[in-house]
Amino acid sequence: MSTKNIEFVIPPRPAHFVGDGFKVHNFIPSSHYLSMQRMSPFIMMDYNAPTYFPPTNTPRGVGVHPHRGFETVTIAYKGKVAHHDSSGNSGIIEPGEVQWMTAASGILHKEYHEKKFSEEGGDFQMVQLWVNLPAKDKMSQPKYQGLTKSDIQTVILPNNAGTINVIAGDYLGTKGAASTFTPIYLLDGKLNDGGIANFTFPSNYNTAVLVIEGEVKVNNSEVTPTDHFILMNNDGENFTVEGIGNAKILVLSGEPINEPIAAQGPFVMNTREEIMQAIQDYNIGKFGFLED
C-alpha cells in the first residue's frame, strides 16, 4: 500500500457566531480546496474552539430551523449540548458523546447549551459536521442517534501512544457505533507526546485531520498547530499522525457521493427544483412542528 500525503494545511478562518451559542471556525465549504464536492460526503464542518460562556438563565444556542437531504453530526468536547426535533427526539450530550441526526425528508430541530451548563457557565467546545445523503436516501424517514460514552468503543494504541474513539467506520477491527448510509470513518483520537497512530483508508476516500488540541506531525512532516485542518491527497492509503505534546485529533474519511449537489441554506439536494420543493414543503408545514 502507498502513502496518503498531505495536500494542504488550512488555518482557521475568523470565527463567527451561529445563533448565540456557537462561535465557530468554518472549514467546509471554505474555498475551492474544501468545496462540498471535494470533501464529499462531508459537506459542512464548523469547529467551535474552546470558548468561555458566562452563566445565564436563558440557554444560548440555535432556535428552531429546518433541514432536508443530509445528516447533522455534533461532537461535544467541552460543555453540554441539548437537542430537540419535530420527530419527537431529544437528547443531551456531554464531552465525548455525539448527536447524529438524519434530516432526510425533512425535520425541524434546535440545538442549545444544556440548562445546568448554561446556569453555571464554562468552556464550550464542539464540532458539527453535515454529512450528505445519496439521492436514493434523501427522502427517507428522519431519525436520531444519541451516542453516549458507553456506546462509543475505544481502541487503546500500543506503546502508550494514546486512544482512538470509533464513532463511525472501524479502527483496528473495532466498529463504530453510528449507523451510516455510505461508507464513513469518524475517529476521535487522543495522542500522547510522541504517540503515533496509523490510519488506512481507500485512496479515493476524501480524508482530513482536524487538530483539536496540541500539535501533530502527519507522515513525520512539519508540525501542524491546533485549530488547523489537514487535507489529505487522494494518492494513497496509509498515513501516520504523531502527537507533539498531548494532542487531540478528529479524523474523517468517506467514500465520495458522485452526484450533483444543489444547496441553499438548510437544504441540500441534487437539483434546483428539489430545493424549491423543499422550501415549499417547509412553508406549508410538512416538516412538522417544534416549539421554539
Structure report:
This protein has 292 residues and is mainly β. Helices cover 8% and strands 51% of the residues. The chain contains three helices and 24 strands. The protein has helices at residues 36-39, 115-120, 272-283, and strands at 6-10, 16-18, 22-28, 42-53, 61-67, 70-78, 81-85, 90-93, 98-102, 107-113, 122-132, 143-147, 153-156, 162-168, 170-171, 174-175, 184-191, 196-200, 206-218, 223-224, 229-232, 238-254, 262-264, 267-269. Strands 1, 13, 14, 17, 18, 19, 20, 21 and 22 form a nine-stranded antiparallel β-sheet that branches. A seven-stranded antiparallel β-sheet has the order 2-3-4-11-6-9-12. Strands 5-10-7-8 form a four-stranded antiparallel β-sheet. β23 (262-264) and β24 (267-269) form a beta hairpin. The longest helix has 12 residues, at 272-283.
Stretches with pLDDT under 50, minimum 5 residues: none
Q: Mean pLDDT, nearest integer?
A: 97
The CATH architecture category equals Sandwich
Strand percent estimate? over 45%
Question: What is the highest CATH level, the class?
Answer: Mainly Beta
**CATH homologous superfamily classification:** Jelly Rolls
Give the H and E element order. EEEHEEEEEEEHEEEEEEEEEEEEEEH
Level of helix content?
under 10%
Number of strands: 24
Compute the number of structural domains. Answer: 1
> What is the overall silhouette?
globular
> N- to C-terminal separation?
52 Å
Radius of gyration: 18 Å
Number of helices: 3
- Label the structural class: mainly beta
Predict the CATH topology: Jelly Rolls
- Biggest sheet features: 9 strands, antiparallel
